[in-house]
Design brief:
The protein is built from eight helices and no strands. By secondary structure, the protein is mainly α. The protein has one domain. The radius of gyration is 18 Å and the shape is globular. The model has no long low-confidence stretch (mean pLDDT 78).
């Protein structure tokens, strides 16, 4: 069982990462604005199921890798730090896309397709798998018990944080789009805040000691 203070820090890290713009967020915002909140919720259900798929696959993978290859932790730690720095750069690079620039060319889809596309958007997004593989090991320690159970515990925490944040985004997508369109300065503030938070997490992971 992972201590509560470790879970809380992981939840904070998961929060920073989930509010970092990516395919899932862009898809949810686009669907919500073009088809309404119900479409956004159906798409969100698909995205969350996609997370569950990744969690199961990665949890079993980490159990095998961390027990058979001791050097794997150092490799995954390095990948985690590099990945976070990459996300930080993506947040502030010149001409980076505003997540509220909606793709209005999306077709009007039915409930089944909204769920399916949301699921596939997440499952086929390699960044999600890279995040789990590189980030989870930073919080897994042998003294806390089974690697598999710890991975699932972290996964459930991440899914809960992701669901809450994306649920709020779906509810307020239209209003948020209007606000940011009228106040573009807040887009810049959001980007630099994200870049700073991600860089901090990258440094923390880089200097963490091996288990």
């Amino acid at each position: 069982m992972i201590p509560i203070h470790e879970i809380l820090f992981f939840a904070l890290a998961a929060l920073v990462l989930v509010i970092s713009p990516g395919p899932n967020m862009i898809y949810l915002i686009s669907r919500t604005i073009t088809q309404g909140k119900k479409a956004g919720m159906l798409s969100l259900a698909g995205v969350i199921c996609g997370f569950l798929f990744h969690i199961v696959m990665v949890s079993f993978g980490l159990t095998a890798v961390l027990f058979t290859i001791p050097f794997a932790y150092t490799v995954l730690k390095t990948l985690g730090a590099v990945y976070l720095l990459y996300l930080a750069y993506q947040a502030i690079k010149p001409n980076s896309k505003n997540i509220f620039e909606v793709d209005k060319s999306l077709k009007i889809d039915g409930s089944k397709k909204l769920f399916t596309v949301g699921f596939l958007t997440n499952v086929l997004n390699p960044k999600v798998a890279v995040f789990y593989l590189s980030f989870f090991p930073q919080f897994i320690k042998p003294e806390y018990g089974s690697v598999l159970s710890q991975s699932l515990e972290l996964g459930v925490t991440q899914v809960c944080v992701s669901f809450i944040v994306n649920f709020i985004i779906v509810l307020g997508a239209a209003k948020a789009a209007s606000f940011f369109s009228a106040n573009p300065i807040w887009i810049k503030i959001q980007k630099w805040f994200m870049a700073s938070a991600l860089t901090f997490l990258a440094i923390k992971i880089a200097i963490s000691k091996a288990k």
